[in-house]
Amino acid sequence: MSIVVTGSAGRIGSRVARRLLDEGEAVVGFDLRPAGIDHPRYREVIGAFSDPAAARQAAEGAKAVLHLGALMSWRREDADRLWEANVTGTRMVAEAAAAAGCRRFVFASSGEVYPENVPAYQPIDEDHPLAPRTPYGLTKLLGEEIVRFLGRTGAMETVILRFSHTQDAAELLDPDSFFSGPRFFLHPKIRQQEAFGNAAAVAALEAVDDGREALVLSRNENGRPFAMHITDTRDMVEGILLALRHPAAAREVFNLGASEPVDFARALPLMAERTGLPLREVNLPGPGIHYRTANRKIRERLGFTPTWTIERMIDEAVAARSARQRS
Ligand code: NAD
């Protein structure tokens, strides 16, 4: 019997697949792209989640499915692809798993179902109202509903994990990284805000730009620094494995992420000190990002113990940046 890992070529899925193989499990990867894993206990299905034949092929002989793959996009032009990958795709993967007699189905949802950046109260726990504000968040909520429905009406033990923002530490100080570039680096942030059509944000950012590469400490319009959870992929892997195996995880919903949010007013000066890059500070229009999400339920019920603080992640990010600069 195998464990299916969808999104097996992705940031989180690839690490989960390798970890399960190390532990002696048979793993089936399912992704649009190959994961580059060469192992006698690894089989791979290359295809779209929304293709029922590919989903059936992946689920054959599965004792569990970790549905970690999804399209993450906030671009308007990706609306149809988002639906196809995350709603139709989740339905096909989950139905194939149920039909194959799979016992446990773990679904990677997201804090965007609340959404975390517009909280009704904090810390955001699993009872917080669900009111996504982006098409991506909506597809994750619909994915949850599909999974809940199959759990309610069938025999699969479903587990919904609402993931924190997640990064490989090595990505943190990479200006070309999809997430960290626009979050921490001035020029990628200007390009991102231009693409979103946020003229006022672009003007505020350009006002502190002297043309040199720089880090940027974002504050809201009242000067409050951004704060959000940034969880290391390795901690996420531990939480996903608990969701896979712990008896108390069955039919539950858990926030999964670091215990403390990252305070940008502390992290950015540390990044600047460790890289030697200049640090720009900018007040961006609007309320900004400032949230705290509770991981108490998964810590208390499943024994989740995250160990990767932002300081440890920055240590590794600095080493990765130096290695990139040398090569
Ligand atoms: P990732 O983008 O690194 O990996 C996703 C993988 O899914 C990719 O390899 C991609 O090829 C595959 N994929 C996308 N659409 C597909 C389709 N239609 N058919 C088959 N494969 C497809 O993402 P990640 O950071 O590893 O995230 C894993 C999961 O966690 C996703 O479900 C994501 O929505 C969720 N999540 C991630 C974060 C984060 O910050 N990384 C935060 C919240 C939730």
Query: Using only CA atoms, what is the Rg?
Result: 20 Å
Strand content: 15-25%
What is the overall silhouette? globular
Tally the helices. 11
Bound molecules: nicotinamide-adenine-dinucleotide
| Proportion in helices | 40-55%
Short description:
It comes from Chelatococcus sambhunathii. By secondary structure, the chain is α/β, with parallel strands linked by helices. The chain is built from eleven helices and 13 strands.
Outline the fold blueprint.
Layout: E1 2-6, H1 11-22, E2 26-31, E3 42-46, H2 52-59, E4 62-67, H3 79-99, E5 104-110, H4 135-153, E6 157-163, E7 166-167, H5 180-184, H6 186-196, H7 199-206, E8 215-219, E9 227-228, E10 231-232, H8 233-245, E11 253-256, E12 262-263, H9 264-275, E13 279-283, H10 296-302, H11 310-326
Parallel strand pairs: 1-2, 1-4, 2-3, 4-5, 5-6, 6-11, 7-10, 8-13
Antiparallel strand pairs: 9-12
Helix pairs in contact: 1-8, 2-3, 3-4, 6-7, 9-11
Bound molecules: nicotinamide-adenine-dinucleotide (NAD).
Give a verbal description of the structure:
This is Nucleoside-diphosphate-sugar epimerase. It contains 11 helices and 13 strands. Helix 1 crosses helix 8 (233-245) and helix 6 runs antiparallel to helix 7. The mean pLDDT is 97. It starts with a strand and ends with a helix. A 7-stranded parallel beta sheet has the order 3-2-1-4-5-6-11, sandwiched between helices. Strands 7-10 form a two-stranded parallel sheet. It is of the alpha/beta class and 327 residues long. Strand 5, helix 4 (135-153) and strand 6 form a beta-alpha-beta unit. It has helices spanning 11-22, 52-59, 79-99, 135-153, 180-184, 186-196, 199-206, 233-245, 264-275, 296-302, 310-326; strands at residues 2-6, 26-31, 42-46, 62-67, 104-110, 157-163, 166-167, 215-219, 227-228, 231-232, 253-256, 262-263, 279-283. The structure holds nicotinamide-adenine-dinucleotide. Nicotinamide-adenine-dinucleotide is lined by residues 7, 9-13, 31-33, 48-49, 68-72, 85, 89, 108, 110, 163, 165-166.
